[in-house]
């Protein structure tokens, strides 16, 4: 069993981006600029956005954090998005999800200029991805593809089972694994909460990608010997430790790792890749600006 070490690969990618940014500055060009819009005080969102800001500093990007209280109106948020869309100093921006219930997330995503949508959530970018056109890929699936690529995992002709059908991970993951090229060229089965005989389907998989959002859902008996297992889930489980919790994924790592040929740890796997690929999308946005 070999770990798919997202922490190591994400650091490699950040080093590559930092070198590219240094070269841009040497040519007299300005550094890419990423903005993040955060609404409310959700602990996970605060942690994630804080990590994005630190990562921007590390690679030499400019970054802006726009913070609102939970009671911000939808109209105020949409006005700020319009302002960011029209600000030539901003190359890309994200609106951290989830948003409070009184704000229509779909309306917010639709309002973002696709050329600045470095999360890759806008229907224009999603559609381009589905048609194999050049575009911003959603950061988490992009990170999984990059991990598979850098570890030279053979995906062509393999049976890939994706567990979960969210628009952010599961659905785009299934499209990317089935596209022409490497990684890709897999035969993909997209499964979800209504799938019958899920265990039997998973047992046939050469590659299992779990993005269901259920702690320790994937058990050893669901995975065949030698399968590649990618765990996208991340969960805080309360316990009696000093921190008061431990982090786990969708996969029962202890048991499944004994059967897998490659597996991502949680933490230190896909989560680490997500921020690196968001930076990569922002770098692409900055380069597109100069074309």
Write up what this structure looks like.
The chain has 291 residues and is α/β, with parallel strands linked by helices. The chain has two domains: 27-113, Rossmann fold, CATH 3.40.50; 139-271, Rossmann fold (3-Layer(aba) Sandwich). Helix content is 40%, strand content 16%. The chain is built from ten helices and eleven strands. It has helices at residues 6-26, 43-59, 74-85, 105-111, 123-130, 139-150, 170-178, 198-203, 253-256, 270-289; strands at 2-3, 33-39, 62-68, 92-95, 159-163, 187-191, 207-210, 228-231, 235-238, 245-248, 262-263. A six-stranded parallel sheet has the order 1-11-8-7-5-6. Strand 5, helix 7 (170-178) and strand 6 form a beta-alpha-beta unit.
Number of helices: 10
Low-confidence stretches: none
- Given the C-alpha coordinates, what overall shape results? globular
Strand order of the largest sheet: 1-11-8-7-5-6
Largest sheet: 6 strands, parallel
- SSE sequence, one letter per element: EHEHEHEHHHEHEHEEEEHEH
CATH topology of the largest domain: Rossmann fold
CATH homologous superfamily name of the largest domain? NAD(P)-binding Rossmann-like Domain
| Mean pLDDT, all residues | 95
Secondary structure tally: strands? 11
The CATH class name of the largest domain reads Alpha Beta
CATH architecture level-2 label of the largest domain = 3-Layer(aba) Sandwich
Helix content: 25-40%
Please give the alpha-carbon distance between the first and last residues. Answer: 44 Å
Radius of gyration over alpha carbons?
A: 19 Å
Count of individual domains? 2
What class would the helix/strand composition place it in?
A: alpha/beta
Tell me what portion of residues adopts beta-strand conformation.
15-25%
């Amino acid at each position: 069993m070999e770990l798919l070490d997202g922490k190591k690969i994400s650091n490699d990618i950040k080093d590559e981006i930092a070198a590219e940014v240094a070269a841009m500055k040497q040519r007299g060009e300005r550094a890419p600029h990423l903005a993040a819009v955060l609404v409310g005080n959700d602990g996970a969102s605060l942690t994630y956005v804080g990590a994005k800001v630190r990562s921007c500093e590390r690679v030499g990007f400019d970054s802006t954090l726009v913070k609102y209280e939970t009671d911000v109106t939808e109209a105020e948020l949409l006005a700020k998005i319009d302002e960011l869309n029209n600000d030539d100093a901003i190359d890309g921006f994200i609106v951290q999800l989830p948003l409070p219930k009184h704000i229509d997330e779909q309306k917010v995503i639709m309002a973002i200029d696709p050329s600045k949508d470095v999360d890759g959530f806008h229907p224009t970018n999603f559609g381009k991805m589905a048609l194999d056109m050049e575009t911003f890929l959603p950061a988490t699936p992009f990170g999984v593809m990059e991990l598979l690529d850098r570890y030279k995992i053979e995906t062509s002709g393999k049976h890939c089972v994706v567990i979960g059908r969210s628009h952010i991970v599961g659905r785009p993951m299934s499209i990317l694994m089935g596209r022409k090229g490497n990684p890709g060229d897999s035969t993909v089965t997209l499964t979800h909460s209504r799938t019958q005989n899920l265990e039997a389907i998973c047992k046939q998989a050469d590659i299992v990608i779990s993005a269901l959002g259920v702690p320790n859902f994937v058990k050893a008996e669901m995975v065949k010997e030698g399968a590649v297992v990618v765990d996208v889930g991340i969960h805080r489980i309360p316990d009696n430790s000093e921190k008061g919790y431990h982090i786990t994924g969708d996969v029962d790592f202890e048991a499944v790792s004994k059967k897998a040929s490659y597996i991502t740890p949680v933490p230190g796997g896909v989560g680490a890749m997500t921020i690196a690929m968001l930076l990569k999308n922002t770098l692409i946005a900055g380069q597109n600006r100069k074309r």
